[in-house]
Amino acid sequence: VTSLPQQLKQQRDKLRQYQKRLSLGLERERALARQLLRDGKKEKAMLLLKKKRYQEQLLDKTENQISNLERMVQDIEFTQIEMKVIEGLKIGNECLNKMHQVMSIEEVERIIGETQDAVEYQRQIDELLAGSLTEEDEDAILEELNAITQEQLELPEVPSEPLPEKIPEVSPIKNRPKPELVAAS
């Protein structure tokens, strides 16, 4: 079973073969017309040249028909490509519609919200594992620091006596001669 474009190409090829036969015949008839003129048979040469002229017109018509067939083949092949594209778009649209039926806007929003919650939860876990503190931890630490600072504000009393101006220097102990011990007799 041959397709329409294939059948058109076969017709085009047959027309080209017909063209070749006509071209070969034209060359022979021209040569024959020369021979007839040389032989003095002008009337037969004229008749042969009229026949040749008619075949040249057929050759031109054949060329136009071949061009029309080639254009038609190209149009059909392009239309087939367009049909495949349209079929692909149709299948794609059907697939998208089925996906849209499965996934509503509310469902997508819910999934996005859950994803954001999961990402935030994972970030908190990462921070804990990395030893970094969350904002809540920072706030708790600041509160504790303020409490400790308030406790330390109770300082000891300041002495009422004035401090000495100069601290007396302690003199070093001088080496005194050791008394000699006398032996008792």
Task: Give a short synopsis of this structure.
With 185 residues, this protein is mostly helical. The chain has four helices and no strands.
Write up this protein.
With 185 residues, this protein is mainly alpha-helical. The protein has one domain (2-133). It contains four helices and no strands. Helix 1 (4-38) runs antiparallel to helix 2. The protein is rod-shaped and about 165 Å long. The mean pLDDT is 82.
Topology at a glance:
Elements: H1 4-38, H2 42-102, H3 105-130, H4 135-152
Helix pairs in contact: 1-2
Organism: Hylia prasina
Main location: membrane
InterPro entries: Snf7_fam
Q: Key features?
A:
single chain, 185 residues, mainly alpha, 76% helix
Which ranges are low-confidence, i.e. pLDDT below 50, for 5 or more consecutive residues? none
Following the backbone from N to C, one meets helices and strands in this order, namely HHHH
Estimate nothing, just give the exact number of structural domains. Answer: 1
Question: What is the typical, i.e. mean, pLDDT?
Answer: 82
Radius of gyration: 58 Å
Q: What share of the residues does DSSP label as strand, in percent? A: under 5%
Largest sheet: none
Please report the distance between the alpha carbons of the first and last residues: 157 Å
Q: Enumerate how many helices there are, as a single number.
A: 4
Helix content: over 70%
Q: Please tally the β strands and state the result.
A: 0
Give the structural class: mainly alpha
Shape: rod-shaped
Protein name: CHMP6 protein
Pfam families: Snf7 (PF03357)
Organism: Hylia prasina (green hylia)
Main location: membrane
